[in-house]
Structure formats: structure tokens, C-alpha cells
Design brief:
Layout (H helix, E strand, L loop, with lengths): L22 H4 L1 H15 L13 H6 L4 H20 L1 H4 L9 H45 L6 E2 L2 E8 L10 E8 L2 E9 L3 H18 L6 H19 L9 E8 L4 E8 L5 E3 L4 E3 L22 E5 L4 E5 L1 H4 L11 H8 L4 H16 L7 E8 L2 H8 L5
Helix pairs in contact: 4-6, 7-8
Length: about 400
């Protein structure tokens, strides 16, 4: 998968340390001192603006370390003394240098500087801890949503994951593609809820799918096996909300010879079939209930088949896409926007979708978003890629 702006899932995970503060914050102490020096000559002599330098250590502590704060404290005390007792700079006699008001100013600045140094050291430790947590979370995300191969047989694959929060690294949206003897089997799902419980449930479902996809010859039987797995997990967790621990999911199967898509929908937004001249919603109104709610129906899982020709593309997505809102509260019209994109290969399609979602929402995504695109390519195209060129 490519690296989207908000939430890159794959790629080398490296420990980056504490995040650097923005440039304006690093320069804030300089701007603060400049403002004091501008105010000093234009205010009356009996208005000692230099007292404002008491806050300089705390201003420095926002973006700098304890040594910088200590240096800013020394500088602030020295500058207060210069402004207090230099006739050429402040128009005050030298005797003001040891006036009790100015001495109290020096003492207060030193105390605030000590406090700012402690706060800066604490902030640095917290930022490093947060960086370590993010690093571990990125590793966990790579294990949970491992990189998909760009090609399996005659399928070109691409995936996308965006977190609603820039600080987040993992969530309850999931996807997977597994080559099996029955064809390539795809999964996309959305775990109800947030937090660690949702992540654990997503990991359990992915693990079960990666095993069962090779064993179950029928796609409905595969969905039923996932149903039982999620039910056992909900019962194992216990509590009074077992019936509310569910996962919406799509199971799709594309045989090795292509030409057809088999889909089992478990309460999930219907997939889209992207053709050169249209975008079709694959929904015949027979969607089953989410996983762990299948006991509500006698025959919860139904397989639907649709034609799938070379050049066509299947798009699976979570409701974070279609529930994205603009400034007026209007939901994102996915099919309509895809028609406006025109024919695009999987990578460019998801890149375009990614940027369009951010633009539509004003860079304010409210929910995690996952998408999986699979494009069927012709056999002669595969041979042209695989066979070495001869002169």
C-alpha cells in the first residue's frame, strides 16, 4: 500500500524520537523579547515594561528543552537589569537597578525560570514516551494490516487506510486478500466500537480468515465459520453487551479464471464495480446481518455472483468513506465521484479517492477509512509483463 498523508500502514517503521514543534513556536521567545523591546521606548519611564520578561522562561518552555529555558532565564534577568538601570536605553538612573521592585522582578523571573525548566524536562519526557507508543502502534498496525501484494494472478490490488485522528495508528477497520485454491478471497470489515477491544477483535477476525480461507470451498461456509469465530470471541469476553459486539464485513471471491465475482455481504456497505463507462453498486437487497448477529436469521449468508471482465475493478470500502460529510453535512457521494474520476488503475484510484475525501471534508475526517481495490487484467497483459523481452 502506498503511504497516505494521515495514516501510512506499510513501509519501514523507524523510531523518530519526539516530534519537532512548529517553527513559529520555536521562534516565539524571540518574538516575545522583540515585542518587549519595542514597547519599552514608547512607554513612559514609570511604566516598567521589562517586568513582562518574567514570562520569557515559560514561553521558551513551550518548544525548547530545559537548557534553553535556563539560558532564557539568565537572559531575562540580565535584560531586566539593563532596562532597569541604563539611562541610555530606558531613561532611568542607575540607582533603579537595585530598587526593591526590580529586585523582586529578578527573583520572580528566577523562580519562574526554575519552574519552566522543570516543565520543559517533563514535556520532553512525555513527548519521547508518546513517540515510543506511536512506534509500537505502527508495528502493531503492520502486523494487523500487513502489506498486500500488488498482484495476485490476474488481479492488481491496492489498499488504503486512513485514521480519523492524526495521532492514531490503529483502529477497527480491516482488510485482507488471500490467494487460495478456490481463487483470490478478499475481506474488508469494520468492527463496532473503538479502542483496544476493536483492535483485538479485528486481529482475531483477520487471523481466522487467513486460516479458513484455504479450507472452506464455499464462500457462504467461510462466512459462517467467521460468524462462529466472532460469536465465540464475544462469549469469551463476557459482559452484558455480547449482542452489540459485531463486525460488518464483505467476503469476495474471484476465481483464477476471473469473469465472475462472488460476494457475501454481512451488513456492510455494498461493493462497487467500476467499469469504463459506469459504476455499479453490487447489492441485490439480500445482505445478511453483521458477524455475531447471524443467529437472528435461519440462513444468514447468501452468495451473490456478478460478471467481472478484464479492465473492470472491484472497490471494497468501509463506511468511513460514505459517511464523510462536507461543511453542510452532506454525505460523500462515492459512486458519483468515482464516475467523475474516469477509468483509473487501482493505485491512482485510491490516491484520488484519498485526496478527494480530505478535500470534501475540509481535512476533517470523522471516522477511520479503509478501501481495497482489485482490478482484473487480461491474460495477454500478464504474459507481456512476466515474459522477458528479447531483441
Amino acid at each position: 500500500m502506498r503511504s497516505p498523508r494521515r495514516q501510512p500502514v506499510v513501509g519501514a517503521a523507524t523510531r523518530t524520537g519526539a516530534p519537532a514543534p512548529p517553527g513559529w513556536m520555536r521562534w516565539l521567545p524571540v518574538f516575545y523579547v522583540a515585542a518587549v523591546l519595542i514597547l519599552e521606548p514608547i512607554t513612559p519611564v514609570d511604566w516598567p515594561v521589562s517586568f513582562l520578561l518574567v514570562a520569557l522562561p515559560l514561553v521558551t518552555a513551550f518548544a525548547h528543552g530545559p537548557y534553553a529555558v535556563a539560558g532564557a532565564t539568565v537572559f531575562a534577568v540580565g535584560m531586566e537589569a539593563v532596562l532597569a538601570g541604563t539611562p541610555c536605553c530606558a531613561g532611568r538612573p542607575v540607582g533603579y537597578l537595585w530598587d526593591r521592585h526590580y529586585v523582586a522582578d529578578y527573583v520572580c523571573t528566577a523562580l519562574v525560570g526554575a519552574l519552566g525548566t522543570i516543565l520543559a524536562a517533563h514535556r520532553i519526557r512525555r513527548e519521547r514516551t508518546l513517540a515510543d507508543v506511536r512506534f509500537v502502534a505502527e508495528i502493531a498496525q503492520r502486523v494487523l494490516l500487513r502489506p498486500l501484494p500488488q498482484r495476485i494472478g490476474n488481479l492488481r490490488l491496492e489498499s488504503l487506510y486512513l485514521s480519523a485522528a492524526a495521532e492514531a495508528r490503529i483502529g477497527g477497520d480491516l482488510y485482507e486478500a488471500v490467494p487460495t485454491a478456490f481463487g483470490v478471497r478478499l475481506l474488508i470489515g469494520d468492527v463496532r466500537g473503538k479502542g483496544l477491544l476493536a483492535v483485538e477483535t479485528a486481529a482475531a477476525l483477520l487471523g481466522a480468515f487467513r486460516e479458513a480461507a484455504h479450507d472452506e470451498p464455499d464462500l457462504a461456509a467461510l462466512a459462517l465459520r467467521m460468524e462462529r469465530s466472532m460469536t465465540r470471541r464475544a462469549e469469551h469476553l463476557g459482559g452484558s453487551e455480547i449482542g452489540e459486539r459485531f463486525v460488518t464485513a464483505i467476503f469476495a471471491e474471484i476465481p483464477a479464471d476471473g469473469r465472475v465475482i462472488r460476494v457475501v455481504n454481512c451488513g456492510h456497505p455494498p461493493p462497487l464495480l467500476i467499469r469504463a463507462d459506469d459504476v455499479l453498486e453490487l447489492d441485490n437487497g439480500c445482505s445478511g446481518p453483521p458477524l455475531n448477529l447471524g443467529v437472528l436469521l435461519p440462513d444468514p449468508h447468501h452468495v451473490d455472483s456478478y460478471p467481472f471482465e478484464p479492465g473492470e475493478q472491484l472497490l471494497l470500502y468501509t463506511d468511513g468513506v460514505t459517511e464523510t460529510r462536507d461543511a453542510s453535512g452532506t454525505f460523500y457521494p462515492l459512486a458519483q465521484r468515482l464516475r467523475s474520476f474516469g477509468p483509473l488503475p487501482p493505485h491512482e484510484l485510491l490516491e484520488r479517492l484519498h485526496h478527494d475525501l480530505l478535500e470534501y471534508s475540509g481535512d476533517n475526517l470523522q471516522d477511520d477509512t479503509a478501501a481495497l481495490a482489485a482490478c482484473l487484467v487480461a491474460d495477454d497483459w500478464i504474459r507481456a509483463v512476466d515474459e522477458p523481452h528479447t531483441s
